[in-house]
Amino acid sequence: MPTWTPQVTVATVIADRGKYLLVEECDKVSGALVFNQPAGHLEANETLASAAVRETREETGWDIQLCGLLGIALYTAPGNGITYHRTTFLGKALAPIEKALLDPDIHAVHWLQYEEILANSARMRSPLVLASIELQRRGICYPLDLIYT
Q1: Using CB atoms within 10 A of its CB, is residue 86 exposed (0-12), middle (13-18) or buried (19+)?
Q2: Global pTM?
Q3: What is the three-state SS of the chain?
Q4: Which CATH number do you get for residue 63?
Q5: Structure confidence by residue, pLDDT tens digits, 94-126
Q6: Containing domain of residue 91, as a range?
Q7: How many domains does the chain have?
Q8: pLDDT value for 54
Q9: Does 148 fall in a domain?
């Protein structure tokens, strides 16, 4: 029997003055440019929170402060059949990093209004992108110490 191993990922929802920080990246299965929150895989010896901060820096060039936890989701991508265990954090943008070198997979970094995100909903990397923004808009925010080590 094959081993089932979900991939552990993190993401951040960063909102500032009515806009959301998103990245535009190439979907490795379809080749299409899609929108996603700053997100990525947990690395060895890393906490979920530190992974979220690192991924946001690497993908957007922004320093952030985590404010809370939006939720945890399981998602099986139809394109590759991989199941992702995603922890999504709420964060606050502090400042852009001077001369930041972005992850090579990132095509562009955008601050988009909610209406722009809805207008591009077919271009979201997964349903988790819009779902996590909706959680933030509803005021969902769990304390960071919900996750402990």
Answers
A1: buried
A2: 0.95
A3: CCCCCCEEEEEEEEEECCEEEEEEEECCCCCCEEEECCEEECCCCCCHHHHHHHHHHHHHCEEEEEEEEEEEEEEECCCCCCEEEEEEEEEEEEEECCCCCCCCCEEEEEEEEHHHHHHCHHHECCHHHHHHHHHHHCCCCECHHHCCC
A4: 3.90.79.10
A5: 999 998 899 999 999 999 999 999 999 999 999
A6: 7-143
A7: 1
A8: 97
A9: no
